[in-house]
Amino acid sequence: MNILLTGGAGYIGSHTAVVLVEAAHRVVLLDNLSNSRQEVLSNLERITGENIPFVKGDVRDTTLVRQVLEQHDIHAVIHFAGLKAVGESVQAPMDYYANNVQGTISLLQAMEDCGVRRLIFSSSATVYGIPQYLPIDEAHPTHPTNPYGRNKRHIEEMLGDIAGSDRTWRIVSLRYFNPVGAHDSGLIGEMPRGIPNNLMPYIVDVATGNLSHLSVFGNDYDTIDGTGVRDYIHVMDLAEGHRSALDYLDTRAPTMSLFNLGTGNGFSVLRMVQAFEAASGKKIPYRFAPRRPGDVAACYAKADKAAIELGWKATRTLEEMCASAWNYRSPSTKTKTP
Ligand code: NAD
Ligand code: UD1
User: What are the distances in angstroms from CA 58 to CA 12, 104, 108, 317?
Assistant: First the structure.
């Protein structure tokens, strides 16, 4: 089937493109390259052996999206395109509403115009806000604590309204926990611009020598070793979750559904450091620092709903997550082969 991936040149979109091509789907990528690089496209070609159609453009350009949907006879859309830095969303909320909420409205308008009513949306565990209980299931209340999280929740509510207005829509919102790691080829992966905000890319930058040490934000949480606990999920497992969600859309999905995509396991910051050191052979110097404002002690998923209804489970280990993240960025693996 022909699937449009908005934001398809980005971190999660590019890995999902590989999984879908391998599952014999035809994918088309639409991306404005605001947070990704053109070279991802040639690397995708090296991995898949396919020439993947790419449209450089913005999801807010409704006319362009309509053209792409028609020209490529698109059956379903996976909507990854958006801005995703929590701190930045606090500084520049307007940019986030314009890009994320308005971008989704533009996409939905184009889809409605073209009669394409199959959508998978990239949501986030951040919609839950401060956990009221653990593990977090899909029925957990949603109280996002920042504009980025509110964007995601507003969009989910909008999608629910649209699905309710026309029973021919099939919409799945996937709430990702903490994606890390890279494709085994080392050709695609996570490469944030500037100093990373998130733990894994920060650790990798320390390993490469770009940064001197990791600041561990808080060592007095009520967790196994006092440091924050999160549900890290291998990006290839996450990508496979999208393939399962596509099958679900076409076979048994109600008009609108929500799923956590996580492993169900929580790992502390120090456990992550230890696992990365073991996988890379690199020492990661760290210092304890004050808690990061807005952080919670622990957050991990109850992943049963996706297992039961989508038939999907994360299978890759923490060691595989760390080894693949390092393989992507390690200077000693410069010559990569798919
Ligand atoms: P990413 O930044 O690597 O990918 C997003 C892509 O969208 C980028 O290539 C960017 O150039 C493109 N883009 C942004 N705005 C666009 C627009 N208006 N029009 C066209 N293209 C546009 O991010 P990612 O990590 O791959 O995340 C993908 C999605 O998953 C995002 O919606 C993000 O909010 C969500 N998500 C990510 C995480 C995470 O930790 N990576 C966690 C939860 C949810
Ligand atoms: C962050 C986002 C969240 C998003 C998620 C997706 C914030 C506040 N939240 O959450 O909205 O859905 O990423 O991946 O940005 N840590 C350090 N030192 C660092 C970086 C992180 O100790 O330099 C710790 C954090 O305190 C936390 C853990 O590592 O305990 C994971 O942090 P991070 O990777 O930023 O993810 P989240 O906090 O879960």
Answer: 18, 11, 14, 36
Q: What SS3 class is residue 275?
A: helix
Tell me which residue of 173, 161, 158 sits closest to 119, measured CA to CA: 173
**10-residue stretch averages of pLDDT, the chain, 338 residues long:** 98 98 98 96 98 98 98 98 94 97 98 98 97 98 96 98 97 98 97 93 97 98 98 98 98 97 98 98 98 93 98 98 97 61
- pTM of the entire structure? 0.97
CATH architecture of the domain 2-333 equals 3-Layer(aba) Sandwich (3.40)
The structural domains of the chain, with segments of one domain joined by +, span 2-333
Residue 180 C-alpha to ligand 1 middle, in angstroms? 14
- Residue 69, C-beta contacts closer than 8 angstroms, at least 6 positions apart: 4, 77, 110, 111, 114, 116
Closest by alpha carbon to 316, among 238, 260, 247? Answer: 238
Question: Is 125 near ligand 2, meaning CB less than 6 Å away?
Answer: yes
Residues having CB closer than 6 A to ligand 1 are 6-7, 9-13, 31-36, 58-60, 80-82, 84, 99, 103, 122, 124, 176, 179
Amino acid at residue number 61? D
